[in-house]
Design brief:
Elements (H helix, E strand, L loop, with lengths): L1 H47 L6 H14 L1 H25 L3 H7 L3 H18 L13 H32 L3 H21 L4 H7 L6 H7 L4 H29 L2 H4 L2 H4 L1 H27 L2
Helix pairs in contact: 2-10, 2-13, 3-5, 3-13, 5-6, 5-8, 5-13, 6-7, 7-10, 8-13, 10-13
């Protein structure tokens, strides 16, 4: 009888111990499942990254696409090019100071974005805009512009802080130091920006994954290649444009040289839009390389 009572009294304790053991087993299994799910997610993210990014192929593909689709380039870009040229000429006439002209050219941003989004969609989806005006400025373009302006403001803030820090560190003789600091910061900013270039074609296509962290994660380990590739598609035409500007100022007669920026405005805009087309194509093909795996 005593044994029976003792066993009955001990039973709740044994049941509690057994329940606690089962609970620990369930928790352990859940932890292992969560860890496995996390590892699988990380593995999928790594698998989505190209093991060897053929950046030279992307650069060549970007130039070839523009060269082989000049008709499409003109169809999409003619209106935005004409409007941009007219605004540029007007700014040169109305705004006297150089800083004022640079600020006024921010008006160009919606025009450039309308072309860029349409060109992204042409390179990635084969979309050919209908109607007389290629492209538009709607909600998709507004989101594209929002991201672009946000990154531009962030870059500007970093440059200003770098210049202020250099001045505070060196004092009155900070001119050379500021220039060096700005140059270094500019390279760092461009390098960082190339890790985020997948964002823009994703926004242009309406990809719900579009985001800074998403682009940064996918391009991990390919920063140098993307930086060199972006320089290869954005610098050559830009340098040709500035060489023409310098040549016009030096070679043209004195009475004409002052009017060269106004007279050559359409030529400069052609180089701007061609440069934009190649750069946007590079971003599009990089997006495709990182996401279609």
């Amino acid at each position: 009888m005593a044994s029976t009572v003792t066993t009955a009294a001990a039973s709740p304790g044994r049941r509690s111990a057994g329940y606690a053991a089962r609970l620990r087993w369930i928790r352990k299994g859940a932890g292992q499942f969560g860890s496995a799910r996390e590892d699988r997610g990380q593995a999928l993210a790594r698998a989505a990254q190209p093991k060897d990014l053929a950046v030279g192929v992307l650069v060549g593909q970007s130039y070839r696409y523009v060269a082989r689709h000049l008709g499409l380039f003109l169809r999409i870009g003619w209106f935005w090019f004409a409007l941009s040229s007219a605004l540029g000429a007007l700014i040169l006439r109305v705004v006297a100071s150089a800083p004022g002209r640079y600020a006024a050219e921010l008006i160009d941003i919606p025009l450039v974005i309308a072309f860029a989004v349409a060109w992204h969609r042409a390179t990635l989806a084969g979309e050919v805009p209908g109607g007389l005006i290629g492209g538009r400025f709607g909600g998709r373009e507004a989101r594209y512009a929002g991201w672009l302006v946000l990154l531009m403001l962030a870059a500007f803030a970093v440059l200003v802080l770098g210049a202020v820090a250099a001045y505070l560190a060196v004092g009155e003789g900070a001119g050379t130091t500021q220039m060096a600091a700005m140059a270094i910061l500019l390279v760092i900013l461009v390098f960082t920006a190339t890790r985020l270039i997948l964002l823009f074609p994703a926004v242009a296509l309406g990809d719900p994954r579009a985001g800074l962290a998403w682009s940064w994660r996918l391009t991990r380990g390919h920063g140098v290649a993307l930086f060199l590739g972006f320089c290869a598609v954005s610098l050559p035409l830009l340098l040709v444009k500035y060489a023409l500007m310098l040549g016009g100022a030096i070679l043209l007669p004195t009475d004409v040289a002052g009017a060269a920026p106004f007279l050559l405005q359409p030529v400069y805009r052609i180089f701007d839009f061609a440069n934009l087309a190649v750069s946007v194509a590079f971003m599009s093909f990089a997006y495709k390389s990182f996401t279609t795996r």
